[in-house]
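Hey, quick one: can you model this chain's 3D structure?
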Amino acid sequence: MELYQLEQLVAIAEAKTISKAAEKLLISQPALTRSIQKLEEELDLKLFDRKKNKVTLNDNGALAVQYAREVLGNASEMVMKLQAYDKSKHTIRIGSCAPAPVWGLNYSFKILFPEMKLENEIHAQDEALTEGLKKDQYTIVVVMRPINDKQLICEKMFTEELYLSVPPAHPLAMAKAISFDDLNGESVLLLSRIGFWNELCLNKLPDSHLLIQDDASIFNELTKASALPCFSTNITIQRLTHQENRVYVPITDDEARLTYYMVYQKKDKARFSALKYAVDHIDWPETLSEYYASR
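Sure thing. Here's the predicted structure for all 295 residues.
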């Protein structure tokens, strides 16, 4: 008995006729009939009631279809889990609430595991990231709050602080600090897909005209060419390999300061034993070089 025979049996049950099933399966009707007859011989029972110009599933056939669907489902799950397991041996999947931890982890993992493939995803919700970690959708996640779970290891990474970036001639360039309330109503360039920071700016600046850009390259060109304010952080400033013609004004709101925590499963404790040291010694300008080299 072969899996393709079970697929054919299910196709006949769904299509109601052998001719329609054969059309769906892209095989001839006689070939499908012979295949089903062979299945009946192997099972040593009849699956269909055959009358003139009509073939219908009998009780045996109906039960066989139920088992066939279960077997096919298990086979698909087996393939999916085996592929996921094989991929996990060669791939580190990073889920993060913001981009900066991804830059840092990519840099650290390339030093620690140069042979591994790295994948990453930005997601603003801690709960979704933690659930994904427990379901093996991620190898490691970065969240905004420490997590207390006996099955997980949680380690502090670093703190990121938000700044307003403006040209020297901009009226706000003279400010020693600024709040979101002060900034609300201004036109501001904003890069999308930056996780928590994106949601924070949208919530805190409801009256501002936010010029949202999806493409980082276009965003950088607009920053250089226009007098519009945009946001930066202590991390993005450290990544700059040359000093831009911008002034960075710290934002005073408590929400503009975020400490990250990296979380992974206890089974990876030995494998990631050197990760905390690597993260504490990130060469931030080099992370920018790595970013452009991978594009």
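One thing worth noting: Confidence is low (pLDDT under 50) at residues 291-295.
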